[in-house]
Amino acid sequence: MRVSDRTRQRVAAMAASTGQQMQTIIDSAVEAYERELFWRGFEQGYDQLADDPAGWDDLDAERSAESPALRDGLDGLDRPE
Asked: The whole model's pTM is what?
């Protein structure tokens, strides 16, 4: 994989200041970018859904149908005194 000289210098400086290997820094950066892309896509999906009244109504109906299961069996779990 090729990177620009500027990027290589930046990663080398991070490695020097943190004591981590350059490969570890690049791996972490790629993982962080992958998470960012995932959440960006997730938000775009919700934005598109918000612009679709019928689709939003379907989602709302699905949530309403599933909501009783969210607390299934949890009402009796009070802490002992």
From this structure: 0.66
